[in-house]
Write a structure and sequence with these properties.
The complex is a heterodimer of chains A (110) and B (117).
Chain A: E1 9-12, E2 18-23, E3 35-40, E4 47-50, E5 64-69, E6 72-77, E7 86-93, E8 99-101, E9 105-109
Parallel strand pairs in A: 1-9
Antiparallel strand pairs in A: 2-6, 3-4, 3-7, 5-6, 7-8, 7-9
Chain B: E1 3-7, E2 11-12, E3 18-25, E4 34-40, E5 47-53, E6 58-60, E7 68-73, E8 78-83, E9 92-99, E10 104-107, E11 111-115
Parallel strand pairs in B: 2-11
Antiparallel strand pairs in B: 1-3, 3-8, 4-5, 4-9, 5-6, 7-8, 9-10, 9-11
Classes of the chains: A mainly beta (110), B mainly beta (117).
């Protein structure tokens, strides 16, 4: 279960939209609709913000959305807010009851 | 609301064995969910270690398979992680998590384990 590839950093100004990519393979992202995204603040545990590619848990703002295309998943944050500055990790089911996380992206709100 | 709490030693000797326990409250570990361990080396990304079902069926990350054991104690409503032959590369914050389907919906606060003599 190799790590999925994310850009190390992303940034945007308040109110703008930013998209973070997550590239896997045909054995994980490209084969299952089980991609999830996690938001992590420094020193805190991750929190799920997107699951099953594009579903949002209760309480997560609809500014967060997810999608996939082929072997790449994407997280879009619309209407960027200062509180969105955090680390973001994708995760995909990789078959045979195994999971792979992304390398992580640090989102900076300018 | 389910809560998970990791417990165990914070310092492990090189070549030693790590043993962590995750206490679950607010939900039964026999509820049909899967339970996993995830770790994060300082300043690095997340790594899934392995999972266990409530009936004790386990799956591990391939590269860790030979060193990892996850077990469950239904009577105590907890599950545990054991990693043998620890090295500095195993220094990390270790999280216990609950699955909500094919994602992780509840996380413990995490515990930093350092491998050092």
């Amino acid at each position: 279960q190799s790590a999925l590839t994310q850009p190390p950093s992303a940034s945007g100004s308040p109110g703008q939209s930013v998209t973070i990519s997550c590239t896997g393979t045909s054995s994980d992202v490209g084969n299952y609709d089980y991609v999830s995204w996690y938001q992590q603040y420094p020193g805190k545990a991750p929190k799920v913000i997107i699951y099953d590619v594009n579903k949002r848990p209760s309480g997560v703002p609809d500014r967060f959305s997810g999608s996939t295309s082929g072997n790449t998943a994407s997280l879009t944050v619309s209407g960027l807010q200062a509180e969105d500055e955090a680390d973001y990790y994708c995760c995909s089911y990789a078959g045979r009851n195994r999971y792979a996380f992304g390398t992580g992206t640090k989102l900076t709100v300018l | 609301q389910v809560q998970l709490q990791e417990s165990g030693p914070r310092l492990v000797n090189p070549s030693g064995t790590l043993s962590l326990t995750c206490g679950v409250s607010g939900a039964s570990i026999s509820s049909g969910s899967y339970w996993s361990w995830v770790r994060q080396p300082p300043g690095e990304g997340l790594e899934w270690i392995g999972q266990i079902s409530d009936d004790g069926y386990t799956d591990y990350k391939t590269s860790l398979n030979s060193r990892v054991t996850i077990s469950v104690d239904k009577s105590k409503n907890e599950f545990s992680l054991k990693i043998i032959s620890m090295t500095a590369a195993d220094t990390a914050v270790y999280y216990c998590v609950r699955h909500g389907g094919f994602h992780f919906d509840s996380w413990g606060q995490g515990t930093l384990v350092t491998v050092s003599s």
